[in-house]
Design a protein that fits this description.
The structure holds two protein chains of two kinds.
Chain A (H helix, E strand, L loop, with lengths): L5 H13 L1 H6 L3 H11 L7 H13 L1 H4 L3 H17 L8 H14 L8 H14 L14 H18 L8 H9 L4 H22 L21 H9 L25 H16 L6 H16 L10 H8 L4 H14 L6 H14 L7 H12 L21 H5 L9 H17 L9 H16 L6 H18 L3 H17 L4 H10 L2 H16 L8 H11 L5 H12 L5 H16 L6 H11 L3 H16 L2 H8 L11 H13 L1 E3 L4 E5 L10 E8 L3 E10 L10 E6 L8 E4 L8 E10 L5 E11 L6 E2 L8 H12 L4 E8 L4 H10 L3 E5 L3 E8 L3 E7 L6 E8 L4 H15 L1
Parallel strand pairs in A: 1-8
Antiparallel strand pairs in A: 2-3, 3-6, 4-5, 4-7, 7-8, 9-12, 10-14, 11-12, 12-13, 13-14
Chain B lengths: L2 E9 L7 E8 L1 H11 L9 H11 L11 H4 L9 E6 L2 E11 L2 E7 L15 H18 L5 H18 L10 H9 L22 E14 L8 E13 L6 E7 L8 E5 L8 H5 L15 E5 L6 E8 L6 E10 L2 E10 L9 E7 L6 E8 L3 E5 L4 E5 L9 E10 L19 E9 L7 E2 L5 E3 L5 E16 L9 H10 L1
Parallel strand pairs in B: 6-22
Antiparallel strand pairs in B: 1-2, 1-5, 3-4, 4-5, 6-7, 7-11, 8-10, 8-20, 8-21, 9-11, 12-13, 13-18, 14-17, 14-19, 15-18, 16-17, 19-22
Helix pairs in contact in B: 4-5, 5-6
Classes of the chains: A alpha+beta, B alpha+beta.
Organism (chain B): Suricata suricatta
Main location (chain B): cytoplasm
Subunit structure (chain B): Probably part of the adaptor protein complex 5 (AP-5) a tetramer composed of AP5B1, AP5M1, AP5S1 and AP5Z1.
């Protein structure tokens, strides 16, 4: 494509920005990246247009150059363009540096083997050091801004490849001490220092003189790709992990620097903090976050450096600065903030959270900070919002909500008020916070009741009610007026029914139960023929149950005549379904029959008749199951779908939590092979139980399923015997699934916890040895093990009961020759065809030496573990 | 502490999309880090179209408020900060920092340097406050001295270049965008070692320091036994220091007359180098007593080039400047009103203007007014259903004025007449608007002789003061009125 005019480019860029994905899928998409690079060198385009092209490449490199090769080529081309610029002032140098950096990072091309990286990095470092690069880098007037830009590029590279500049710390310190621009160098040094400390601490290495001020990078290549490789594997969060966690948990191992290193480190940090007032407030905040994080994991480095800065920071209204102070508070706690300091910080936060000179978003953020305040000695559980201990009622009073507040401020302040109410002791007084809370909620309800009022005010009212219930669920003095108030609100504006249903779905029984009753009374006392009928039916479908049935049925009977359209009929049928589910039989049958006769719409009529038949033919629990929505899928609005789901549930196998407990019992009597004795307990009646087993690792032959016709809770069940056929003599676990029928007729399926099969569960005795020569029999077995097998000796610790107890408890069936207390000879058969022979010798203090042989060397470690573990299980 | 993307969206109710993306900027290198840090919980930044739609929905700025929508209206979906989660393409984009101001929505998505599930608390995310500061900075830049839409468009067009300067890689370098604009224009200024990053160049010319103190007074008056009236003064001290040298030092002292009201809740500009602990601790949280620190309040600082707010304060003066009552009674389609206002004798009786606005909400247009005023004149805005009582420059000698009358309303038509959620039934207010020049209610002043400047040349020092009303409400005492907890508490204290 030939050179494009400015207007064409403007159009093209506009189309791209409107929807990058659409543009890239179109005919022009493929060429955009290439065209952009070549146009940057065109002499026809103005600098301004070229800057806008570069701006695009800064935002969408992944779309323009989607893979590493393309990104590498693009970065190379951008660097070439930079070098070829004529030596006069140009607005392109900065964005070209930014674009080359972005292309390399975004395309994953940054690395020691990338040619473009090898060109860009030294260039950036030279610029950052303000070294003379010759005329091609523009006039002297541009050097300063380019130096700053180079620092920014390096900082971004270090952010994306932590540790990359680990070798440049000394150099950067030197530059900062000289005439370099303070802000870019400070931020770059702080970031590189933080990353180096974190990575070295993880690797257990020291700082290795990294901080020594130097004019040139110490020895050869300054890029520490090895350190960056380390850093890559655990890109560290910059935020001190919050709430303050144990050091190991936050991923920051503890680094203990040598005295010399500590001195250098202190000097570097002091250097950074001393000039921090020259930084813009946002940059000061970044510096504090970085240094706080860097020093947090260091032993013996008290954070006193920060103290002189704090008073200055606490005085400001800057969001970032106060936030950074809170970060330091969270990172260092009492080491930096005494109880008095903590009180002062809280005071400043409280002031800031309501200061009329600050904007609303700042107020809200400060309120959040109050509720999540990092206390020195928090009382409540971590991570939960709470009012800080030192925030007394006096301080809290200014933060109490009023109807005049913005909704978000009202909710935030309301939360705080609720937390204060929990602690408040002057309950029931005329002017207590609780009384005020009631008035406030009443005001919100009055607003929500306003006919035609915006949805937002209704939402606010319900959110506030929900918040209050969540915080004060145990206080009847709050819940009772709230329940009455909400019922009155429904009376005033039934159109809020969806909000009521939503509220009932979210709150616990403390409010849910009384509110159900109040709403039901409210609805059934209505004539049932007004415009609000659909809302009444929606509420009833949620709250109707077996209680006050006649009133409910009376209301429905009266309403039926007014349900003239399909929607209303379905809503009424919805209430009937709820009653069927609740097991309300009498009276309902009459209503359903009446509906089946009375309604003209065939769908409504058929449904009524269907419900009547179900009611007449199914027992209570089954009916509930047939009509209940499947727990897996959300109910659709259509009643047909809801019913279909109910029936399908009866026909299909349901996944359910098991009402069955399965465990391995004592060892059974030996048969031909090892047998597990299983014990079964059930929490509810279970019919036609089938247990299926799967052997993990296929170490044994597949197991047969076990069937039990009927199980009842409390009634003992005979033990189930499960024969194992090992293919190898090794322990394993059995996955267990249960398939059963419930009393309600549902077929259910459940996963039970896996059953362990221990090594000892496989032990079998040898067939009876010849009566006279037991010793000879054992010796023959002993000798036959070698040379194919293996022998070992170990020290088997003994518990207080001694050797005899151990043998009688664990090895009794397998003893061939016993000469207590001096020795035992034990022969164990391990299916399918291995053997394990033990010689237990004279017991000594605390243990017994055991020699053992096996003809299968894979058994050796298992036997070792088994013997060592014996004393623990005595 | 970086941002993944920034947007400016104009809110245009009534149009098909209800808004337009006026500016957006993405930061792909930050996005790269987000992908690593967020792991499985990573949700990519959407394109402008889907973002606009999701944000307007969440902020309730689409015109589809009619139906209950659970994902937005559920009682458990509680937002207590200007940080939102947006449902986009099956994912949840969080945290989205956003707020609406002057029909413009400012939004950004800060990088969270850990997994997003479970969500970490906002306080632990450094990018949140950085994001707010960026958006406040953009807002200040757009609306400072902006007069019309053309100017707004010009400034919007400057934004890409400015952010390239102030936030090249998503990490904010300076929230003061005007500084970035200046640094583009003054690229050739030679810098020296100690040049602060917040000061782009140096001033050359006649040295001068200008200090102006603006106090706003708010009030809620009820004229009721069981509810106390409240009022509060909020002060802003603005400085412009034209001084030569890189780091000139200035100390400004604010003083109070002997009967002045102590300044509280003092927040200072970050350029203030040190603060007396008495300034740091004096706060409206504490009960007032005579031992409160009453100045002089010293602020040593190194000024930036531009005009800036040196400090903000609040104060609790002993009496409100104008005390009044408003009685309104409904009688079918008419209301009867009586208003009485009294200027306190200690207040300077020389206004630039003074007006009482009396709106009538949730009613039809005014069809007829009969009234009597003891002073000033009354203007009737029939369609807007409101009255404005123009009191003028001075209260009469008696310091007390009154208005009484009967207002008749026509039938209500929903579109035209103002709707209000609070002023239902008899609940109504009048709002006072006034301004007094060369006066502060606290008595606070900056003495020219107490200003110390350590710079070459003797600067000319000028000081200005003014008092203006802000949220000055007098509620109808014949009906319920919204109260704050403070009003109830004060009564308890007084009783």
């Amino acid at each position: 494509m030939g050179p494009l005019s400015r207007e064409t480019w403007a159009q093209r860029l506009g189309a791209f920005r409107a929807s990058p994905s659409t543009f890239m899928a179109g005919p022009e998409g493929e060429d955009l990246g290439r065209d952009l690079l070549s146009e940057l060198r065109s002499e026809k385009l103005s600098e301004q247009t070229k800057v806008s092209l570069l701006a695009l490449s800064l935002e969408y490199p992944a779309q323009l150059w989607p893979d590493g090769t393309a990104a590498e080529a693009a970065a190379t081309s951008l660097l070439d363009t930079l070098v070829l610029l004529p030596p006069r002032p140009s607005a392109l140098r900065r964005p070209l540096l930014l674009a080359a950096t972005t292309a390399l990072v975004a395309g994953d091309a940054l690395g020691p083997t990338s040619e473009a990286s090898r060109r860009l990095l030294p260039l950036l470092l030279c610029l950052a050091c303000s070294r003379d690069l010759g005329r091609c880098f523009g006039p002297a007037s541009e050097q300063r801004p380019l130096q700053a830009t180079a620092c920014e590029c390096l900082r971004e590279l270090e952010s994306c490849k932590p540790g990359l500049l680990g070798g440049c710390l000394g150099l950067l310190r030197g530059l900062l001490g000289q005439e370099g621009p303070v802000q870019p160098l400070s931020l770059l040094l702080a970031l590189a220092l933080r990353n180096a400390l974190v990575i070295q601490a993880k690797a257990g290495a020291g700082l290795q003189g990294m901080l020594m001020a130097a004019d040139t990078p110490s020895g050869g290549d300054p890029w520490n790709w090895a350190l960056a490789e380390e850093g890559d594997t655990h890109l560290q969060p910059q935020a001190p992990s919050w709430p303050p966690a144990v050091e190991e948990e936050c991923g920051l191992a503890v680094l203990e620097p040598s005295p010399e290193e500590a001195r250098e480190l202190r000097a570097a940090v002091a250097q950074l903090l001393d000039t921090s007032y020259l930084l813009t407030p946002v940059a000061q905040a970044q510096l504090l976050w970085l240094l706080g994080w860097a020093l947090r994991g260091l032993r013996g480095q008290p954070p006193v450096f920060f103290k002189p800065q704090l008073v200055r920071l606490l005085g400001t209204a800057q969001l970032t600065l106060l936030h950074a102070v809170l970060a330091l508070k969270a990172a260092f706690g009492e080491a930096l903030f005494t109880a008095q300091d903590e009180a002062l910080l809280l005071r400043r936060l409280t002031v800031a959270a309501q200061h009329p000179a600050l904007p609303l978003p700042a107020h809200l953020f400060y309120l959040h900070c109050l509720l999540s305040f990092p206390e020195n000695w928090p009382l409540g559980p971590m991570g939960e919002e709470a009012a800080p201990l030192l925030l007394g009622p006096q301080m809290g009073h200014g933060l109490v909500p009023s109807l005049l507040h913005d909704p978000m401020a009202l909710l935030a302040r309301l939360h705080l008020l609720c937390l204060l109410c929990v602690e408040d002791e002057e309950k029931g007084q005329e002017r207590s916070p609780q009384h005020y809370l009631e008035e406030l909620l009443a005001g919100l309800r009055q607003r929500a009741a306003l006919d035609g009022g915006p949805r937002a005010s209704a939402t606010l009212c319900f959110q506030a009610s929900y918040l209050v219930v969540r915080c004060l669920a145990t206080q009847p003095t709050v819940l009772t007026p709230l329940t009455h108030g909400l019922a009155r609100l429904y009376h005033a504006r039934p159109a809020l029914a969806p909000h009521f249903v939503d509220l009932l779905n979210r709150v616990g029984p403390e409010l849910g139960e009384p509110l159900r009753v109040a709403l039901r009374q409210e609805v059934v006392s209505q004539p049932g023929r007004d415009e609000a009928l659909r809302w009444h039916l929606q509420i009833l479908a949620k709250v109707a149950d077996g209680d006050a049935l006649s009133a409910t049925l009376g209301f429905l009977g009266a309403a039926a005549a007014h349900c003239t359209d399909w929607g209303l009929q379905q809503a009424l049928l919805g209430v009937c379904r709820a009653l069927l589910r609740a097991g309300a039989g009498d009276g309902l049958a009459d209503l359903l029959q009446a509906l089946a006769r009375q309604w003209e719409d065939p769908d409504g009529r058929d449904h009524a008749r269907l419900y009547y038949i179900l009611l007449a033919h199914l027992s209570g629990p089954k009916l509930g199951m047939a009509l209940g929505p499947s727990p897996a899928a959300p109910t659709l609005a259509s009643s047909l779908v809801a019913e279909n789901q109910g029936f399908a549930a009866v026909l299909m196998v349901q996944e359910a939590p098991a009402p069955i407990r399965l465990s391995v019992g004592p060892r059974g009597v030996a048969g031909a092979g090892p047998v597990l004795q299983l014990q079964l307990e059930v929490l509810e009646p279970v019919f036609s139980l089938e247990l299926r087993f799967r052997v993990q690792g296929q170490l044994y032959a597949p197991l047969e399923a076990v069937h039990v016709p009927c199980l009842c809770p409390g009634r003992p069940c005979r033990p189930l015997l499960l024969s194992l056929q090992p293919r190898r003599p090794a322990p394993t676990r059995l996955d267990v699934r249960a398939l059963y029928t419930t009393p309600t007729g549902l077929t259910c399926h459940a996963h039970l916890p896996p059953l362990p099969v221990n090594f000892a569960d496989l032990f079998l005795p040898f067939p009876q040895a010849p009566e006279g020569d037991k010793l000879g029999f054992f010796e023959a077995l002993w000798d036959s093990c070698l040379p194919k097998g293996a022998e070992s000796r170990l020290w088997c610790p003994l518990g207080p009961q001694g050797l005899e107890a151990l043998v009688s408890r664990h090895l009794e069936p397998f003893v061939v020759v016993a000469q207590p207390p001096t020795s035992y000879l034990v022969a164990i058969r391990l299916p399918p065809d291995s053997r394990l022979l033990l010689r237990l010798e004279v017991a000594q203090a605390g243990g017994v030496p055991v020699a053992f042989r096996t003809d299968d060397w894979t058994v050796l470690p298992l036997a070792g573990d088994y013997l060592r573990g014996l004393s623990a299980t005595v | 502490m970086a941002q993944r993307a920034v947007w400016l969206i104009s809110h245009e109710p009534g149009t098909p999309l209800c808004g337009t993306v006026r500016f957006s900027r993405r930061y792909p290198t930050v996005e790269k880090r987000a992908k690593v840090f967020n792991g499985a919980s990573y949700v990519p930044i959407p394109e402008d179209g889907p973002f606009l739609k999701a944000l307007l929905f969440e902020l309730r700025l689409l015109d589809d408020d009619k139906d209950f929508i659970e994902s937005r209206d559920s009682c458990s979906h509680i937002n207590k900060t200007s940080v939102y989660r947006l449902l986009i393409g099956g994912g949840e984009l969080w945290p989205v920092v956003a707020f609406l101001k002057n029909n413009m929505i400012y939004a950004c998505v800060p990088l969270v340097e850990q997994t997003l599930s479970p969500r970490p608390p906002l306080i632990s995310i450094s990018g949140i406050s950085q994001g707010f500061e960026l958006l406040f900075g953009v807002q200040d830049f757009l609306y400072l001295n902006q007069k019309n839409d053309t100017e707004l468009n010009t400034k919007l067009n400057q934004l890409p270049d400015l952010l390239l300067q102030a936030c090249p890689f998503g990490t904010l370098l300076d929230a003061n965008l005007q500084n970035s604009l200046d640094s583009i224009n003054f690229a050739s200024v030679m810098h020296s070692q100690k040049q602060p990053a917040w000061k782009v160049g140096t001033y050359k010319g006649k040295p001068q320091v200008s200090i102006s103190i603006t106090e706003k007074v708010k009030s809620m008056q009820y004229d009721k036994q069981d509810i106390a009236d409240t009022w509060q003064v909020v002060g802003t001290v603005t400085c412009k220091c034209d001084l030569e040298g890189i780091m000139p030092n200035v100390t400004i002292s604010l003083s109070l007359p002997t009967n002045g009201s102590p300044l509280q809740d003092i927040l200072v500009h970050p350029c203030v180098t040190s603060l007396d602990s008495a300034i740091l601790t004096s706060s409206s949280i504490d009960a007032m007593d005579d031992s409160a620190f009453s100045g002089p309040y010293k602020f040593p600082f190194t000024p930036p080039l531009e005009s800036f707010n040196l400090c903000y304060y609040t104060s609790q003066v002993p009496v409100p400047p104008i005390l009044g009552f408003y009685q309104m009674k409904e009688e079918e389609v008419q209301v009867k009103i009586t208003v009485n206002l009294k200027l306190h004798e200690s207040v300077k009786n020389n206004f630039e203007f003074c007006e009482a606005h009396i709106p009538f909400y949730n009613r039809g247009p005014i069809t007829h007014v009969e009234y009597k005023v003891s002073f000033g004149q009354l203007e009737v805005f029939r369609e807007k259903s409101s009255l404005i009582w123009i009191i003028g420059q001075k209260f009469p000698k008696s310091m007390e004025i009154s208005l009484s009358g009967t207002v008749t309303f026509g039938a209500k038509s929903h579109e035209k007449q103002p709707f209000d959620e609070i002023c239902i039934g008899g609940t109504a207010y009048l709002k006072l608007h006034f301004k007094i020049l060369d006066y502060t209610l606290t008595g606070c002043y900056a003495d020219q002789h107490s200003v110390q400047v350590f710079a070459s040349g003797k600067p000319k020092i000028s000081t200005h003061r003014k008092l203006i009303s802000s949220d000055y409400y007098i509620w109808n005492s014949k009906a319920p009125a919204p109260v704050t907890y403070g009003s109830l508490l004060l009564v308890r204290c007084h009783n």
